[in-house]
Specification:
Blueprint: H1 4-8, H2 11-14, H3 16-26, E1 31-32, H4 33-40, H5 44-56, E2 60-67, E3 70-77, H6 79-98
Antiparallel strand pairs: 1-3, 2-3
Length: 103
């Protein structure tokens, strides 16, 4: 088996919670902190840490605003995040194809 594609998986995205975050954000223009927290069933602190990691990598943009006099934090993928996620999925596809056995 060729380990090449495994070695190319983006470790920042590969972690379970961050993969969930990236997947959700890839399917939506933006999501609120609350929507992400509830869907991924993470604590506020845990979600904040994962968002910060993705933000530092340049994959996620965070916007803080107010809605109805209440703070609202939203997240969205950056162009670099969309590209990194597409590359990640491409490597996963390679791994699946390389490991398929003929019938």
């Amino acid at each position: 088996m060729n380990p090449g594609p495994f070695l190319q998986l983006d470790r920042i995205i590969h972690e379970k919670a961050r993969l969930g975050l990236m997947s959700m954000l890839a399917a939506s223009p933006e999501l609120s902190f609350t929507e992400l927290r509830e869907a991924l069933q993470l604590t506020d602190g845990n979600l904040t840490t994962h968002i910060r990691t993705l933000q530092e990598a340049g994959y996620v943009a965070v916007t803080k605003a107010f809605k109805d006099s209440r703070p609202l934090t939203t997240c969205s993928l950056t162009p670099a995040g969309r590209k990194a996620f597409a590359n990640y999925l491409g490597f996963l596809d390679q791994i699946v194809r390389l490991n398929q056995r003929p019938p």
